[in-house]
UniProtKB/TrEMBL annotation, chain A:
<keyword id="KW-0808">Transferase</keyword>
<dbReference type="Pfam" id="PF00179">
    <property type="entry name" value="UQ_con"/>
</dbReference>
<keyword id="KW-0833">Ubl conjugation pathway</keyword>
<dbReference type="InterPro" id="IPR023313">
    <property type="entry name" value="UBQ-conjugating_AS"/>
</dbReference>
<feature type="domain" description="UBC core">
    <location>
        <begin position="2"/>
        <end position="163"/>
    </location>
</feature>
<keyword id="KW-0547">Nucleotide-binding</keyword>
<dbReference type="GO" id="GO:0036503">
    <property type="term" value="P:ERAD pathway"/>
</dbReference>
<dbReference type="GO" id="GO:0061631">
    <property type="term" value="F:ubiquitin conjugating enzyme activity"/>
</dbReference>
<dbReference type="InterPro" id="IPR016135">
    <property type="entry name" value="UBQ-conjugating_enzyme/RWD"/>
</dbReference>
From TrEMBL, chain B:
<keyword id="KW-0788">Thiol protease</keyword>
<dbReference type="Pfam" id="PF10275">
    <property type="entry name" value="Peptidase_C65"/>
</dbReference>
<dbReference type="GO" id="GO:0005634">
    <property type="term" value="C:nucleus"/>
</dbReference>
<dbReference type="InterPro" id="IPR019400">
    <property type="entry name" value="Peptidase_C65_otubain"/>
</dbReference>
<dbReference type="InterPro" id="IPR042468">
    <property type="entry name" value="Peptidase_C65_otubain_sub1"/>
</dbReference>
<dbReference type="GO" id="GO:0006508">
    <property type="term" value="P:proteolysis"/>
</dbReference>
<dbReference type="InterPro" id="IPR042467">
    <property type="entry name" value="Peptidase_C65_otubain_sub2"/>
</dbReference>
<keyword id="KW-0833">Ubl conjugation pathway</keyword>
<dbReference type="GO" id="GO:0004843">
    <property type="term" value="F:cysteine-type deubiquitinase activity"/>
</dbReference>
Length: 165, 273
C-alpha cells in the first residue's frame, strides 16, 4: 500500500521534528494509518490562545494523490471551519478545477503537499482567517464587523476545549 | 431558486454526467487487434469497455469529416490503438504505460530508465522538492522498473487497471516533468501562458495536480527527461487527408518513435507502429 508507506514516512518525520504547538499521529494502533488525531494549541496572540483543539485527519486510500479530510472534534468558531468542525482551506481541496472557478489563485492539494504543510496552513488559518470563501458565514460576518464579539465567541471555544465551560 | 442557482444546478448535473461517462471507460483499454480475440485478455480488460480500435475511433469521430478523413493514413502507418481514459491525465498515463510496456521486454532500455529513475530523488530535491513528499513515488518507480522483467504483459495491464497503483506512477510522470521544467526555466518560460509569473507557479497549478492536461512544454519535458523519442500524430480539423506528425525528444529526424501517441483536440491515446 503506497498510502501506508507515505504516511509512515510522514509520521516518522513529524515525530522527529514536530511543528511547535502541535501533536499529530495515528489515532488508534498503528495498523490503521488512515485515521489520525491532531491536537493544536491555540497560537499566541490569536483569539484562540490558550485553547487545546482536537481534530481528526481521515486519509483516502490513494493518499497522497488526494487530500485528507480534517475535522475539529469540538465546535470552533472560525470563518473557515464549518459548524460541524470540517476545515475548509485551499490546501485541503481536491486538485480538480473548482466547479465555478473559485480559489483559482490558491494553492490546492497535490502530492507535493504534506501533513506538515496542512498543519502549518491550519496554524496560519487560526491567526488569519480568510473571509473570502467562508465555511461559516456567520463567523465570517462577525469577524469582519464585530471583532469584540468574535473574540468572545472564540474565547468560549477556548474554555470549552479546556473543559471549563 | 433564482436563475443563477438554476444554471449552477444544470452545470453540476452536466458535470456529473460527463464524469460518469469518463469513469465508465477503463483507465487503460485493451490494445486493439492483438488482444481483442484473446478471451483471457478480454476477461481481464473488457469489464466495462467495448471492442476498441480504429473502428471505434471512426465511430467516435463520426460526423467530423475532417477527422475521419485522416484515419486511413493512420491505419497505413500504425497497427493498433489503445484507448486511455480521458480524465485529464491521458498524456501522462499513455506515456508512462507505454514506457513500461516497451521497457518490459527491452533490457537495454530498462537499464537506461533505471539509471534515470535512481537519480530522480537528488534531481528533484535539487529544484526544491522535499524528500518526504516525493520519495514514495521515486521509490515506487525504481521498484517497478526493477521488477518489470518479471511481470507479464497481463500483470502490467492489471497494474495499470482500475484497482492497481498505477496512479502513483502516472503522478511520478507529472513530477519528473515538473522537475525537468524547473531545471530549465529560461528555455520553457517563453512557451507557458503569461499569467504564470514563474516556473514554480506554473508547475504547482498546471503540472503537479492530477487531472490537469498536458501542453507541448510538458510533452517535450517528459520526453527529454526519460530520453525517449515521442512521436505524436495530430488528428485535427485541417484540410489535409493525413495526420500531422510531431516528434519530441532525442534522435535523428527519421528515427521511429520509442512511444507513439495519437492526439486529437483534448485527448491522447497510445498507437502502435
Amino acid at each position: 500500500m503506497m498510502a501506508m508507506k507515505r504516511l509512515l514516512v510522514e509520521y516518522k518525520e513529524l515525530s522527529l521534528r514536530p511543528p511547535a504547538g502541535v501533536a499529530a499521529g495515528p489515532a488508534g494502533d498503528e495498523t490503521n494509518m488512515l485515521e489520525w488525531e491532531c491536537v493544536f494549541l491555540g497560537p499566541e496572540g490569536t483569539p484562540y490562545d490558550g485553547g487545546c483543539f482536537h481534530s481528526t485527519l481521515s486519509f483516502p486510500k490513494d493518499y497522497p494523490l488526494n487530500p485528507p479530510v480534517m475535522r475539529f472534534t469540538q465546535p470552533l468558531w472560525h470563518p473557515n471551519v464549518y459548524p460541524d468542525g470540517k476545515v475548509c482551506i485551499s490546501i485541503l481541496h481536491e486538485p480538480v478545477e473548482d466547479k465555478f472557478g473559485y480559489e483559482q489563485s490558491c494553492e490546492r492539494w497535490s502530492p507535493v503537499q504534506s501533513i506538515e504543510k496542512i498543519i502549518l496552513s491550519v496554524i496560519s488559518m487560526l491567526a488569519e482567517p480568510n473571509d473570502e470563501s467562508p465555511a461559516n458565514i456567520d463567523a465570517a460576518k462577525m469577524w469582519r464587523t464585530d471583532r469584540e464579539a468574535f473574540d468572545a465567541k472564540a474565547d468560549e471555544c477556548v474554555r470549552k476545549s479546556l473543559g471549563w465551560a | 431558486m433564482d436563475a443563477d442557482d438554476e444554471l449552477r444546478a444544470q452545470a453540476a448535473a452536466q458535470e456529473a454526467e460527463i464524469e460518469g461517462i469518463v469513469k465508465s471507460r477503463p483507465l487503460i483499454g485493451p490494445k486493439a487487434r492483438d488482444f481483442v480475440s484473446d478471451s483471457e485478455m478480454r476477461q481481464i480488460l473488457h469489464r466495462k469497455t467495448q471492442e476498441s480500435g480504429f473502428e471505434s475511433l471512426r465511430e467516435e469521430l463520426e460526423g467530423t469529416e475532417a477527422f475521419v478523413r485522416k484515419i486511413p493514413s493512420l491505419e497505413s502507418k500504425y497497427t493498433g490503438i489503445r484507448h486511455v481514459r480521458g480524465d485529464g491525465n491521458c498524456f501522462y498515463r499513455s506515456f508512462v504505460f507505454r514506457m513500461f510496456e516497451v521497457a518490459r521486454t527491452d533490457n537495454a532500455l530498462r537499464t537506461r530508465l533505471l539509471d534515470v529513475a535512481r537519480e530522480a530523488l537528488p534531481y528533484l530535491t535539487d529544484v526544491g522538492y522535499e524528500e518526504v513528499s516525493i520519495e514514495t513515488f521515486t521509490d515506487f518507480c525504481v521498484e517497478t522498473l526493477e521488477s518489470l522483467d518479471k511481470l507479464s504483459q497481463e500483470d502490467l495491464e492489471v497494474l495499470f487497471g482500475e484497482d492497481g497503483e498505477s496512479d502513483y506512477l502516472v503522478w511520478f510522470g507529472r513530477l519528473a516533468c515538473a522537475g525537468f521544467l524547473k531545471h530549465q526555466p529560461d528555455r520553457f518560460l517563453p512557451f507557458i501562458p503569461e499569467s504564470f509569473c514563474d516556473m514554480n507557479s506554473f508547475c504547482s497549478r498546471e503540472v503537479e495536480p492530477m487531472g490537469k492536461e498536458a501542453d507541448q512544454p510538458q510533452v517535450i519535458a517528459l520526453a527529454e527527461y526519460w530520453q525517449l523519442r515521442v512521436c505524436v500524430e495530430y488528428i485535427d480539423s485541417s484540410d489535409e487527408s493525413t495526420t500531422s506528425t510531431h516528434v519530441f525528444g532525442p534522435g535523428d529526424d527519421d528515427a521511429p518513435g520509442d512511444i507513439c501517441l495519437l492526439y486529437r483536440p483534448g485527448h491522447y491515446e497510445i498507437i502502435y507502429a
